[in-house]
Specification:
single chain; mainly beta; Rieske Iron-sulfur Protein; six-stranded antiparallel beta sheet; three-stranded antiparallel beta sheet; globular; binds FE2/S2 (inorganic) cluster
């Protein structure tokens, strides 16, 4: 099994005004979601028929104990595929309807300070003029 490598894919500031970004790592489309200070990544291919999860809506988890009763939780932690509506947990990639059968492929995402990237490849691609943070994908 090939060892995973870290790839600098964006600046944190690239996410100002948006909760997601589509990047490409090793020829693979990766969607990165930012939720507050948390970061999540997954292959941008729905396991059903390949729809772009980056184009999907982020929705909440809904729980119910029966008719007329429901509770919303986990705001914006479920992505709904725009093609046929399958839903996936952005933390794990697990499909909401059939969690043991389908899963969007999760990808590790982290944020590092620019001075920590000397051991991380591709740093030369980014002009970091302030002590900013970089978004790193592990693939
Ligand atoms: S391709 Fe995503 S639900 Fe069908």
């Amino acid at each position: 099994m090939a060892e995973r490598q870290k790839h600098v894919v964006a600046k944190v500031s690239d996410f100002e005004g948006t909760d997601r970004k589509l990047v490409e790592v090793k020829g693979r489309p990766i969607v990165i979601f930012k939720k507050g200070d948390e970061w999540f990544g997954m292959l941008d291919r729905c396991p059903h028929q390949g729809g772009s999860l980056c184009s999907g809506s982020l929705i909440s988890w809904v729980e119910s104990s029966g008719p007329g009763d429901y509770r919303m939780s986990r705001k914006d932690e479920i992505v709904r595929c725009p093609w046929h509506g399958w839903e996936f947990d952005i933390r794990t990639g697990v499909a909401c309807a059939r969690p043991t059968k389908y899963r969007a492929r999760p990808v590790g995402v982290s944020v590092v300070k620019s001075e920590e990237t000397e051991t991380v490849g591709n740093l030369e691609l980014y002009d970091v003029s302030r002590e900013g943070d970089l978004v790193v994908v592990e693939l």
